[in-house]
Write a structure and sequence with these properties.
Length: 169
């Protein structure tokens, strides 16, 4: 009878010890800074519509620090054995750092792979120009979805328009 009670009691003591240890570990963490996130201005990122001098509506992004902005996703593109080309018209103002396009291809097996347009970047203040990046799909590689981003490694303002995803065979 004593042996029959010893095992459950030991298990309970072990569990209680673990709970007490975990509670102590949680209390030992020092909060460096807490973010209420109740004011979007504190995020340092503004995304809004803007109108160009020729009347086009474009997307304006202003950021206080490096960020990635997801512009769109393409679901089930039904493409393989081709080169994907993601391009967009972009201009910048007072951009400290660089901005470039980024394309992610997500596959059914859970794999995700990217292409970044490091050869085609903006910095400083520029006029409208076309940025692009390419992704090579081999035979049998069919992405489930494609994510199109613009990466801003710095701070400043940029405008984006006319994003295009095309296929080169």
């Amino acid at each position: 009878m004593v042996k029959e009670l010893a095992r459950p009691v030991a298990t309970i003591i072990c569990l209680l010890s673990s709970v007490v240890w975990m509670a102590g570990a949680a209390q030992a963490a020092d909060v460096l800074k807490q973010f209420e996130l109740n004011d979007p201005a504190e995020l340092g990122l503004t995304i809004e519509s803007d109108t160009t001098s020729d009347g086009r509506t474009v997307t304006k992004v202003t950021t206080a620090w490096p960020t990635v902005v997801n512009l769109t996703e393409v679901q089930s593109p039904n493409v393989e054995d081709a080169t994907l080309v993601y391009s967009a018209q972009v201009r910048s103002q007072d951009l400290e750092g660089q901005a470039y396009l980024e394309m992610w291809c997500h596959f059914a097996d859970g794999g995700s792979y990217f292409s970044r347009g490091f050869d085609d970047v903006l910095t400083g203040t520029t006029e409208w120009q076309t940025l692009s990046t390419k992704f090579l799909l081999e035979a049998g590689q069919r992405p489930d979805r494609i994510t199109l981003n613009i990466v801003i490694n710095g701070r400043g303002t940029l405008w984006a328009s006319n994003a295009t995803l095309s296929v080169e065979k």
